[in-house]
């Protein structure tokens, strides 16, 4: 059975999700591109705001068959003016654009097409939940081939590339920027 044949459940994170996020963020395949501190206070700082409504993003655990395997978040790019300015220097950002960040956290579930299927399912959720959103624009550091390939396989097209400040200092800041128009 393909990953697409199974539905995904997107559950808003809660503080009870924090131990799961910590474990995943410590996994080498996630830590390489999600360069996060993972102490309790750091997880609270980075993820608590979406729970409390003080941060303009939505964070979700992604479940398949009732079992969490990944994480995805979405936000309106305009809610982060500095990011909007950096992205606008590289590509056109249509008004109403959103962005997503994601990972497959369970190391036993990588390389199975789940990332692509999760992104496709989340695009459908974004269309349903945010009917005024016009596009999803996602910058991905060039070395994260699995991520930008998952976007391509999910129907995104590369619309630009260039320098953005890297999350991990081992990267030089080269990013691909992909886009999927939601109003097609």
UniProtKB/TrEMBL annotation:
Molecular function (Gene Ontology), one example: N-acyltransferase activity
GO biological process assignments: response to antibiotic
Domain spans labelled N-acetyltransferase: 8-183
Pfam families: Acetyltransf_8
This protein's UniProt keywords: Antibiotic resistance, Transferase
Source superkingdom: Bacteria
InterPro entries per UniProt: Acyl_CoA_acyltransferase (IPR016181), GNAT_dom (IPR000182)
Cross-referenced SUPFAM superfamilies: Acyl-CoA N-acyltransferases (Nat) (SSF55729)
The UniProt record lists the keyword Transferase: yes
Protein's name according to its UniProt entry: Putative Aminoglycoside N6'-acetyltransferase
Species, as recorded: Rhodococcus wratislaviensis (Tsukamurella wratislaviensis)
